[in-house]
Fold this protein.
Amino acid sequence: MSKIENVEYGLEKIFEEAQDFLPLLGTDYVEFIVGNAKQAAHFYKTAFGFQSHAYKGLETGCKDYASYVIKQDKIRIVLTTPLNQDSWMNDHLSKHGDGVKVVALWVDDAKKSWEETTKRGAKSYMEPTIEKDEHGEIVRAGIYTYGETVHIFVERKNYTGIFLPGYEKWKSEYNPEPMGLKFIDHMVGNVGWNEMDTWVKYYEDVMGFVNFLSFDDKQITTEYSALMSKVMSNGNGRIKFPINEPAEGKKKSQIEEYLDFYNGPGVQHIAVASNDIIDTVAKMRAKGVEFLSTPPDDYYKSVPKRLSDHNHELAEDIEKLKSLGIMIDADEEGYLLQIFTKPVEDRPTLFFEIIQRMGARGFGAGNFKALFESIEREQENRGTL
Ligand code: FE2
């Protein structure tokens, strides 16, 4: 279904078509397997404004791994590192480098979520499991999605503890201020050649999601490389998972570069929402976060017309947006502001997007060309274009 058709059709109507056998309350947490969780936590606290939240490791009686939970408003990230050579996580690290293992979804009934999805063809990762401590109980269950990535359903209605049983409050003396990141807007998966529709069908059949936007390789292309993307959403629109696959171009697609370095499908980027992207990005830049290069002057010159074509007026100072490299895209419903970090590890794999929605519910299609030209300059520098 094309973007234009969707506008006529109405997004609410599309969301209604999603199946409600899997009601999702939101993203519960995202867990990364990393080489050194202690240092990664320091980076995300310093550079992204995350707060020390919870901890599990040798001091709490966990001898196999250490996990640091960092939090900013509704966003919870768990950074986990293995403590010994027998851990399965070592294989994950050697194969993928630092990356996302778990996209956990907050549900009212984890057992039912697992039953409904495995019944529809999902491969089980973790059977429904009750974890208890003095603060109550959590039920978790998990299924595989693309690559080695998994979804874990988390039922926490009978739990009052800090995070999950086994975790203690992380008391740190180093607590930088938050930087205005609010919640996860969407998380994007990269899958292999010709696999996008397989995973679109998986999210439709197994999780009851709907495909509400599609971009083909004619829309997402530059002179050199291309990709295709379909955006999947659950019924209340809170969970959005765009899925990308590479497409043929004159040179190597950025998705192919990801697949080469991640050794298969995985999470490409996490988009986090800010209510004041100018302030957030200025703070992140001051702490050393590297963003993709700022689009050229011509790009910013075209912004007023791109907004007025849709009868919108920019509330922000365009010179400020330009000085920070923040991009602007408009559609019928409003506009959005967005910017992308460079990969946050040495492999050109996972990166972050900062997004502020001013009514628009799209994903910045009008920015794709400027964005991908910027990514290609990076690929060129890496010798992977
Ligand atoms: Fe995005």
User: Anything to note?
Assistant: The pocket of fe (ii) ion is lined by residues 186, 188, 269, 271, 353, 363 (CB under 6 Å). The chain has twelve helices and 17 strands. The domain at 14-169 is CATH 3.10.180.10 (2,3-Dihydroxybiphenyl 1,2-Dioxygenase; domain 1).
